[in-house]
Amino acid sequence: MAPKRIKTRKPIAKICGLGFGEMSREYRRSQKELACQAIIAAVADAGLRKGDIDGVLINRSDTNPSDDLPLRLFDDLGFRSLTFGNVLASQAACGVQMIQYAAMAVAHGMAKNVVCVFADTPILPKRRGGDAYAIDLSLTNVSGWERQYGLYGAVGAYGLAMRRYMELFGAGAETFGEVAITARQWAQRSPLAFLTKPMSMGDYLNSKMIADPLRMFDCAFPVNGAGAVIVSAPDGEGGEQNGAAYIWGMGQAHRGYLAYADYENETETPASVAAEKAYQMAGVSARDIDHAQIYDAFTVTTLLGLEGYGFCGRGEGKDFVADGALAPGGRLPVNTGGGQLSGYYLQGMTQVSEGYLQAASRAGDRQVEKNGWSLVTAQGGRMDYHACLILSPEKTR
After folding, report:
1. Are 238 and 17 in contact (CB under 8 A)?
2. Strand order through the sheet with 385-392
3. Do residues 159 and 166 make contact, with C-beta atoms less than 8 angstroms apart?
4. 379 with 258: CB under 8 angstroms?
5. Alpha-helical regions (H) of 196-289
6. Is there a contact between 317 and 307 (Cβ–Cβ < 8 Å)?
7. Which of 125, 137, 305, 397 is the most exposed place for a label (fewest CB within 10 A)?
8. Marked catalytic residue, from 295, 309, 356, 385
């Protein structure tokens, strides 16, 4: 009797190159210039040439509409043989969504090498980074409704979410301080990070109150800059020189804002739906994940991400982070480049870039010991749109 044949599984696609446009806390270049820098760097990092690129996806930013990325970016870069391209507008979730769509394109033969790019210029000569996000979110779908009560933009909205989490689950300010301090510990190991000064709990508690109970160190650190990655077929040429991260699972989930439903908008998210899709596709579970890059525009989103993606139960995030689980040497390294809190805020591209570097064993002094399975998440709106990736250095299973 012939032995039973074991079916070999293969990944959907791979990320095989990474590039950045100049990142700074000043307005030095337009989004278009930054995007072109990032794309050129990513193509070179993948060991490819411009002529090898036949797909481009653009993640549009809402922070500076007058300095937006046009679809004509294709022409500015001199791409002449594209078979796949588009502009995505699911806000910060697009950092991961671009890669998902690119992966599907190469898996079905629509393209061979797709560049995915995000550029942002929230900081202008007469505008601070935080002011770019003080916009009317229209959470109730009634224009100006929140603004008339003093609720301005994401900071106010996430301040409400943070307060609700504290009231429901008994978390104190120190819980969120643990998240911020851990991000800072990782940032100290990253040459890409902007905030590397050591942070104590006292530093966190004494930081400026922005929207009670949300403090300055609960918030992401905006920068002007750009990031781009190359997505190719698993057996494609890209990544030969610098390594690749293989995409094994993908998931999305979108709920909108259920303002009038019997629903805990501040503490319940559809992340678990995205997680289930991705874990099932990859054939793994949360227990198999070696490190996670969780969208952390605010400290509360790290806690909700841990819960939504199955690392702990609802309301248990406060206990999960209390013993240093996310820090260097912890049982689940999280946001190993400092995340958006201490590294840099390039929306979803922050987590994507670090997830790739870790999975491809290119993270230098912050490289985790185990990188067999990596989770990368992103979200847009006020926890409305979710997307995730499961990465691995393994090409076959």
Report:
1. yes
2. 84-88, 55-59, 113-120, 224-232, 13-24, 245-254, 385-392, 374-380, 291-293
3. no
4. no
5. 201-205, 271-282
6. yes
7. 125
8. 295
Backbone angles phi, psi at 392, to 5 degrees: -155, 150
What tokens appear for 288 in the block?
Answer: 């198999």
DSSP assignment string, 254-276: E----TTSSS-TTT--THHHHHH
DSSP 8-state secondary structure symbol assigned to residue 342: I
Query: Of all helices (H) and strands (E), which one includes residue 379?
Result: strand 374-380
Is the pTM above the cut of 0.85? yes
pLDDT along the chain (397 residues), means of 10: 59 98 95 96 96 94 78 85 89 93 97 96 78 58 63 83 96 97 98 98 97 96 97 92 96 75 79 96 97 98 97 96 93 98 97 98 96 96 90 92
Do β-strands 385-392 and 245-254 pair in parallel, antiparallel, or remain unpaired? antiparallel
Rounded-to-integer distance, Cα 246 and Cα 322, Å = 32
Q: What's the CA gap between 339 and 180, in Å, rounded?
A: 10
Which residues are 388's β-sheet partners?
Answer: 251, 377
Residues 6 or more apart in contact with residue 75 via CB below 8 angstroms: none
Q: Residue holding tokens 């990031």?
A: 227
DSSP track, 77-139: TT----SEEEEE-SGGGHHHHHHHHHHHHHHTTS-SEEEEEEEE---BTTB-TGGGG-S---T
Per the document, the length of the chain is: 397
Rounded Cα distance between 120 and 35, Å, is 9
What single letter denotes the amino acid at residue 130? Answer: G
Structure tokens at 125: 């000569």
The residue type found at 343 is G
State how far the Cα of 185 lies from the Cα of 365, in Å rounded to an integer.
12
Amino acid at 351: Q
Q: State phi, psi for 271 to the nearest 5 degrees.
A: -55, -35
**345 part of the active site:** yes
Does 295 qualify as catalytic in the annotation?
yes
Cα(257)–Cα(360) distance, rounded to whole angstroms? 36
